[in-house]
Amino acid sequence: MSQGVQLRQEAPKTGASEVATLETVSREAEVSDGLTYSGRDRAAEFVNAIGGPVAVTAQDNQRVLRKIDLVILPIILGIYFLQSLDKTALSYAAVFGIIKDAHLVGDQYSWLGAIVYLAQLVMQPAVAYFLVKLPIGKFTGVMVLCWGAVLCLMAAAKDFGGLMATRFFLGAFEASIAPAFVAIVQMCLVLSDSPIEAKFLKSDHDKLVAIERLRMNQMGISSRQWKWEHVWEAFADVKTYLWFCMITAIAIPSGGISTFGPLIVESFGFDSFTTILFNIPFGAVQFVATLGSAYLATLWKVKSALLIALCLPPIAGCVMLLVVEHDKAHRGILLAGYYIISVYPAISPLIYSWSAQNTAGDTKRKVTTGILFVGQSVGNVVGPHLYQPSEAPKYTRGLTSNLALFVVLIALVCVGILVIWILNAKHARMRVSMGKAEKVVDLSMKAQKDARNKGEVLNESEGAVGDKAFEDITDLENEDFIYLY
Predict the structure, then answer these.
(1) Residue 8: pLDDT band by 50, 70, 90 thresholds?
(2) What would the pLDDT profile of 374-405 be if each residue is shown by its tens digit?
(3) CA 280 and chain centroid, separation
(4) What is the mean pLDDT of the chain?
(5) Residue 57 pairs with which residues in a beta bridge?
(6) Rounded to whole angstroms, how far apart are CA atoms 480 and 468?
(7) Which residues of 193-223 are buried (b: 16+ CB within 10 A; e: fewer)?
(8) How far is it, in rounded angstroms, from Cα 376 to Cα 352?
(9) pLDDT tens for each residue of 290-301
(10) Rounded to 5 degrees, what angle do the CA atoms 110, 111, 112 make?
(11) Spatial separation of the C-alpha atoms in residues 309 and 296, rounded to whole Å
């Protein structure tokens, strides 16, 4: 057994000198201008500061993961809940007459839906940079506060100009929310700026476990350094454009349906209050589809097949709304078609997760996430313009384009599977040429029950695999990186 593996199996020794070193690292981490990490991941510096890594058993992993989840999930779910309410507020207001009350004409209503995402598009380069350079928890907190303040001011807007202005700033501050949460989930922290400052992890050993449990996925945590070579690689990587096209393909239907969904239901012949009531099942289907797909992705350790499966119900729903006659006799069928379209919100989280799992390097991850949000913003800007209030009740142009894009998304996922197979084969050849194991298993993805039964250590492997995990290098540079389907 190698010396590195032996070191991981030793119990952590936290003497007085090591505690002093740890406190020094923590204090230095609080002042971003004083950081000197020589381009390495912050996790590597933290591990070295206390004398080396520790073994992570399945029991340790589950215990620390539960602590992290108790902090992460309530905050993320709560803010995403508010964000969902924010996105649907305009469409519900349309049902109750905002188009008439604000004297909106032509495509002005479509622009009110699109301007939020146009602002997000403009803000993405700055957001990607700030997520690398600034303490992520503090940055996110300020953006959420500003977003909420602008949302309150929107109630004072009375015409198209006022609504456009407030919704632009709404999108500008909201632009950081999802990219920040993607970054936080990647490094398994929330409203802390690194594992060193995570106050909910009380002991130094738990902080080490939080770091080491991610060693075998080769992704690192955070370096707080902007690396231009990572930026260039992100733009040169074919995977980036695949993720971009996938998220754009789903964002266009999302932007259109979220803006015009209640109006589509109203076109079935319902009054305003009945329309709102019949949108409740739409949300319920979204809830079940999103949680169900997340559970299955975790259970099966695969996302590509799920993405393909999730495209099928919206395809069927679009066809139903296009071919079924819009009259009172067919309301039930039309509502069924509308409800199965609502499976689509489960697609975007899986695309972001699939992209994140297949990208390494702190700057590259955040740039790639930024590029995806550019695609999402573009799609959400385009989506509402494919629908016009004058095209009721069938909205043929919007639904036909949405149908085509779900088919395109299936094709893009198939291309992604092929690209990942090619890259894994390439990395296997590189490992063999360097004397490493050809096949590597990411034990951080292993089922907790299986790992506990076998007594496996989740952050070690033979042949020095995992030694580059915290060097802040990209997935293409790290031959140990395993791409996931």
Answers:
(1) very low
(2) 898 899 889 888 888 778 788 889 999 999 99
(3) 25
(4) 78
(5) 457
(6) 8
(7) bbbbbbeebeebbbbbbbbbbbbbbbbbbbb
(8) 11
(9) 999 989 988 888
(10) 90
(11) 12
pTM, entire model: 0.72
Amino acid present at 44: A
Nearest to 176 by CA among 223, 248, 122, 220: 122
Nearest CA to 246 out of 304, 293, 291 is that of: 304
Rounded CA separation 177/186 (Å): 14
Could you tell me which of 265, 360, 422 has the C-alpha nearest to residue 41? 360
Residues in CB range of 71: below 8 A, 6 or more apart: 190, 191, 200
Which residues pair with residue 457 across a beta bridge? 57
d(CA 14, CA 239): 43
314 pLDDT above the threshold of 60: yes
Burial (CB count <10 Å: 0-12, 13-18, 19+), residue 433: exposed
The two tokens of residue 332 are 């039930």
**pLDDT reading at 20 higher than 60:** no
Average pLDDT for residues 13-19, to the nearest whole number? 37
Q: pLDDT band for position 241 (50/70/90)?
A: very high
CA distance 380 to 386: 11
Residue found under tokens 């992890």: 201
